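To whoever is on call:

I kicked off a structure prediction for a single chain this morning and the downstream step that reads the tokens threw a length-mismatch warning. I double-checked the sequence; it's 245 residues and nothing unusual in it as far as I can see. Pasting both halves so you can look.
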Amino acid sequence: MNLRVFCVLIMVYILSAVIHGETSSPEYISQMQLLYRTNLQIEYVERAMRRHCPALIVELGSLGVPLSLLRKRRTAMDLDQVRLNVELAKHVLSTLKLKYLSPGCQNSSCSNSVCQNGGSCIRGPGFNVSCACPTGYTGKKCEIRAASVTCTATWLSACKGTYGTGRCSFTCPIGCINSGTVWGTGIYTGDSRLCRAAIHDGRLPSTGGVATVIGLGAIKAYTGTTLNGVTTTSFGSYGTSFRFV
């Protein structure tokens, strides 16, 4: 018998007790409520395990659950029987939590990840994972190829074809901090140098790396500032622009 069947049976017991008017005793009501809450927790942990470590999902029999208790007729569900089922549910929940928090389940969150193109999976707190992408790739799963550009590349020369369709990712080399002119702050003109703008915006260090932009239309004015060792220039209206994402 699997956990889902167990939870369904518990719900049937509760509904049957209500239908037959066996909830007059305060203790009976309290125990049934506890059974219901514990059952909900079992379902929650089971769903989490099926998502993160399905190989560790176990049958109730292997948890030491006396299945004969679950096969008794509803008429045997008196107060003592409810107490027994509460303890049974607590036992199941406790065992599942131990398995859910075990290294075997925690570690599987990374082994089941889908980092692509040689990306390395990094485990964070709980089951949070991220991908460390190799040079030339970006995205949550390293699924986006970032073409290499030179320090002279602009949005117009490298990314214009992506306007209105999505993002443009690129890989900058080292040494672009003093290369070319950049107009704007936060939003840059379409003919600004991509790599130098990325340094100004704090997206890349002077040693280069991968950055991503999205193309925008014209804005009325661009304001120059000095940030991260790069000074940009102010400008009036320009037909195309971009920002980093």
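Update from on-call: the warning came from a stale cache, not from the record. Cleared it. Sanity check on the structure: Residues 3-105 form one domain.
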